[in-house]
UniProtKB/TrEMBL annotation, chain B:
It comes from the Eukaryota. The active site is at E272. It comes from Cynara cardunculus var. scolymus. The keyword Transmembrane does not apply. This is aldehyde dehydrogenase (NAD(+)).
């Protein structure tokens, strides 16, 4: 593996944008937090402070909720026809397309993501997502019902109200739009709490939202610390629903907060320990590429990462050789460098956590094939790491590491691997590599996971719903199913007299 | 096929949506330039061409001569559409990309709003105000509506009774033939073209061949489209020549279209035909509001709406007051040049319709209905008809049974379902039970309660009985342009069923 040159040459690639937005966005204005407190956001490539961001407290969250509540109860947003909401959302999408580079820069700087990926894949996908839901806003249909007595009934699908959206740091822009777009389409108003590790993209997007014509109070952003601002959102008595993407541990706390406050509906998209299962008939080259991509993409900081790779014994030796060979070309370095495959972990805490798991792996007796150490001494870079001979019950096979660490296990039969693949409390995603129709059908229906990728991985689409089974959470993102988080169904029933049919 | 109307402009707009921005130039020369266009990407200047005149109904004068397509031109258009479907990029583009093209078209329509409205008003006689403020914006609105459907066309995975994985794929049907009427040329274009394109079909731009427009006469070009077997048998005989034909127009012509479809290749047919829709004023109605709405329901678009509320049923208790006020309202209706501000009613579309309306008025008088006002042509030039009101109309009179398609209101005392049509109905009441009972009892495709002619993009529209087959607009319109393929795979050892 090759490391980019030292910091001096990385300066060539870095273009520091003007950080225009560092304050809370409440009721259409950027405002300081009431306390005046701020927190630092760091560039994980250099460990330098990028900017000081307003730190929202419970009081700031109250203000934001007040604005959102007024916008919902009295404002125009829910009272606009879906078509008009869609028009404004399309304008928002157009503005994103006009500012792709700016957003990409913020994302790379704040979250250590690879700049070329941001400009070509990640950021362009978010305007598509907005357009998908812009086109959905006028297509939310209820039903007229067939009742068993002389009554007429129908269902109205109504916006749930004020929603709290707690956004993670691994895809700050994409997650912001992922959560907001269906909420906007449904006619809800929202308070967004971006992760403190990477708050910059959210604030910039709020600025674009206003330019697009999203009315004041509809979309509010309160930056701050998870256990303060995030907790305030989860336990707020006037928020009707909370949607969270993040760790299972925090997901639990949010659900508890809902129970002890106002029983707001909850949707959670949590951790995973997703299996990628490679069968004997797989093309070794393709399988190795998928395994690397599946576990190392975005420095392993994706909830659906294929962190457990099961390889059937017939293909095992050949595949492992290929894997190691390809991993050597996986470049870790300055995320602004166009040849980089992997940037730094998002912050010190994550960095140390991943290294600690790697340590466990070594001590538990797994065989370290490649990597296993930090990369360079500037920034939070870690080498792509592959372990084999990993015991199913070892820590690195059970816990979500959220770093560039792949655990490889060998298997014999289909039935065996189904059992082992399912032997996890998580159930977010899974991958299958085979060309056999029966294996594909058998395994895809047997694995308990919210998305199963066959001969591909990390394939996301605005139209394809994803969300977890088991302790990976509940509720869907993407697709028309995503709207369900933000809609309540009301049945309306009236007696009818002398109807010619029933 | 655009029956006797100029649609070359639109086809050119679509195919050059990326290439060249619109140009504003003198309207007449614009029309000249496009009136020779028959199909395909480039306007064709054919060697010796039949043309037919497009008239200005204010005066009866010719605006321009439009290329007259016949069976041969239809063949070329279908061929191009077939090629575009089988080999071209359109059906293979991602739905998102298709939706972007439809959105871009909507943007272009908006940009050329006034020009399109002027063309429509000039050729059709409807007021410029209606065209510019209502119809053309609605065209853009509809295309945006359908753009939003393109990537949301879902089939199903289906629970089977045995170990099978079952999915239904909703596939584009192929080449759609669409015959568009003259009363709302732009709107009807959107109702047909929008869903067809959203579903990935091509029409007998955009990539070349995807949208083809052939102007001509119904009995020649229209009939050729309805009976098309698909052009090149040698080349495409292995392909199912599935064409769907969508037609809006008179019931009489609709029957011919369906017959031709049956005799040729059993193409699927959707028909949106005539109507004699009842407008029912209940005894609890607010009379002033009811009068205004009933007036609008009939007289809108010079009475040239398939769903016009052309039989106004009034409860006997409020009949007298209603009649008096309706007559006064009709007398106040301003008739004149549709380009002039403040005019409510322009001329009828052409001499044929004009003569027909006057004949029906004569029949009304002869059958002893009471002529309250109007009853004759308006002015001495063009095809204007005075707003006309008949009362004491009986169900068995011709003016109560036939679709007149003109500014002739017939007021009757109460009784609704006696008609072979079933397109729409209006109910005017505050009473919850009455509204519920009537809306279920009326055999019509749309029932408007305390409103009329509400044509939002998502609301399906179509007829019961002899007013037609199938529905347009809304999610329902997609069904017309998709076919369902079930894919069934045997499962070994399924984890669940």
């Amino acid at each position: 593996m090759v490391m980019a040159d030292g910091s001096t040459s990385s300066e060539n690639y870095k273009r520091i944008p003007n950080i225009g937005f560092t304050n809370l966005f409440i009721n259409g204005d950027f405002v300081h937090s009431i306390s005046g407190k701020t927190f630092e956001t760091i560039d994980p490539s250099t460990k330098q402070v990028i900017a000081n961001i307003a730190q929202g407290d419970k009081e700031d969250v109250d203000l934001a909720v007040k604005a959102a509540r007024q916008a919902f109860d009295d404002g125009c947003w829910p009272r606009m026809p879906g078509y008009m909401r869609g028009k404004i959302m399309n304008k928002f999408a157009d503005l994103i397309d006009e500012n792709i580079e700016e957003l990409a820069l913020l994302e790379t700087l704040d979250a250590g993501k690879v700049f070329s990926f941001e400009t070509t894949v990640d950021i362009p996908s978010i305007s598509k997502e907005l357009r998908y839901f812009a086109g959905a806003a006028d297509k939310i249909h209820g039903k007229t019902l067939k009742l068993s007595s002389e009554f007429q009934g129908y269902t109205l699908l109504e916006p749930i109200g004020v929603v709290g959206l707690i956004i993670p740091w691994n895809f700050p822009s994409a997650m912001f739009i992922l959560k907001c777009a269906p909420a906007l389409a449904a006619g809800c108003t929202m308070v967004v709490k971006p992760a403190e590790q990477a708050p910059l993209p959210a604030l910039y997007l709020a600025h674009l939202a206003k330019l697009a014509g999203i009315p004041d109070g509809v979309l509010n952003v309160v930056t701050g610390l998870g256990h303060i601002a995030g907790a305030a959102v989860a336990s707020h008595m006037d928020i009707d629903s909370v949607s969270f993407t993040g760790s299972t541990e925090v997901g639990r706390r949010i659900m508890q907060a809902s129970a002890t406050s106002n029983l707001k509906t909850v949707s959670l998209e949590l951790g995973g320990k997703s299996p990628l299962i490679i069968f004997d008939d797989a093309d070794v080259d393709q399988a190795a590429d998928l395994a690397l991509f599946g576990s190392l993409a975005n420095k392993g900081e994706i909830c659906v990462c294929s962190s457990r790779v099961f390889v059937q014994e017939g293909i095992y030796d050949e595949l492992m050789k290929k894997l190691v060979e390809k991993a050597k070309t996986w470049i870790v370095g300055d995320p602004f460098d166009p040849s980089t495959c992997q940037g730094p972990q998002v912050d010190k805490k994550q960095y140390e956590r991943v290294l600690s798991y790697i340590d466990h792996g070594k001590r538990e007796g797994a065989t370290l094939l490649i990597g296993g150490k930090p990369c360079g001494d500037e920034g939070y870079f870690i080498e792509p790491t592959i372990f084999e001979n990993v015991a199913d019950d070892s820590l690195i096979a059970r816990d979500e590491i959220f770093g560039p660490v792949m655990a490889v296990m060998k298997f014999k039969t289909v039935e065996e691997v189904i059992k082992r693949g399912n032997a996890t409390s998580y159930g977010l995603a899974a991958g299958i590599v085979t060309n056999d129709l029966n294996i594909a059908n058998r395994v895809s229906r047997s694995i308990r996971a919210g998305i199963v990728w066959i001969n591909c991985y990390h394939n996301f689409d605005s139209g394809c719903p994803i969300g977890g089974y088991k302790m990976s959470g509940f509720g869907k993102d993407h697709g028309m199913e995503a709207l369900q988080k933000y809609i309540k169904t009301k049945a309306v029933v009236t007696p009818i007299y002398d109807s010619p049919w029933l | 096929m655009a029956a006797r109307r100029i649609s070359g402009f639109i086809s050119r707009s679509l195919s050059s949506s990326i290439a060249s921005p619109g140009r504003t130039c003198n309207l007449r020369s614009e029309i000249q330039r496009f009136s020779t266009a028959a199909a395909l990407q480039e306007p064709i200047t054919p060697p010796v061409r039949k043309t037919f005149p497009a008239f200005d109904p204010r005066t009866g004068e010719v605006i321009a001569n439009v290329a007259e397509g016949d069976a041969e031109d239809i063949n070329r258009a279908v061929s191009a559409a077939r090629k575009a479907f089988d080999e071209g990029p359109w059906p293979k583009m991602t739905a998102y990309e298709r939706s972007c093209v439809l959105l871009r078209f909507a943007d272009l329509v908006e940009k050329h709003n006034d020009e399109l409205a002027a063309l429509e008003s000039w050729n059709n006689g409807k007021t410029y105000e209606q065209a510019a403020k209502s119809e053309v914006p609605m065209l853009a609105r509809l295309f945006r509506y359908y753009a939003g459907w393109a990537d949301k066309i879902h089939g199903l995975t289906v629970p089977a009774d045995g170990p099978y994985h079952v999915q239904t794929l909703h596939e584009p049907i192929g080449v759609a033939g669409q015959i568009i009427p003259w009363n709302f040329p732009l709107l009807m274009f959107a109702w047909k073209v929008g869903p067809a394109l959203a579903c990935g079909n091509t029409i007998a731009g955009l990539p070349p061949g995807v949208l083809n427009v052939v102007s001509g006469f119904g009995p020649t070009a229209g009939a050729a489209l309805a009976s098309h077997m698909d052009v090149d048998k040698v080349r495409y005989s292995h392909v199912n020549p599935c064409i769907i034909i969508a037609f809006t127009g008179s019931t009489e012509t609709g029957k011919i279209v369906q017959e031709l479809a049956a005799k040729s290749n059993l193409k699927a047919v959707t028909l949106e035909l005539g109507g004699k829709s009842p407008f029912i004023v209940c005894e609890d109605a607010d009379i002033d509001k009811a009068v205004e709405l009933a007036h609008f329901a009939l007289f809108f678009n010079q009475g040239q709406c398939c769903c016009a509320g052309s039989r106004t049923f009034v409860h006997e208790r409020v009949h007298e007051e209603f009649l008096e006020k309706s007559k006064a309202r009709a007398l106040r209706r301003t008739v004149g040049d549709p380009f002039q501000k403040g005019i409510e009613q322009g001329p009828q579309i052409d001499s044929e319709q004009f003569e027909k309306i006057l004949r029906y008025i004569k029949s009304g008088v002869e059958s002893n209905a009471t002529l309250e006002c109007g009853g004759d042509r308006f002015g001495s030039k063009g095809f204007y008809v005075q707003p006309t009101v008949f009362s004491n109309v009986k169900d068995d009179m011709l003016i109560a049974k036939d679709e007149i398609f003109g500014p002739v209101q017939s007021i009757l005392k109460f009784k609704a379902n006696a008609t072979r049509y079933g397109l729409a109905a209006g109910v005017f009441t505050q009473n919850l039970d009455t509204a519920n009972r009537l809306s279920r009892a009326l055999r019509a495709g749309t029932v408007w309660v305390n409103c009329f002619d509400v044509f939002d993009a998502a609301i399906p529209f179509g007829g019961y009985k002899m007013s037609g087959i199938g529905r347009e607009k809304g999610i329902y319109s997609l069904h017309n342009y998709l076919q369902v393929k079930a894919v069934v795979t045997a499962l070994k050892n399924p984890a669940w069923l």
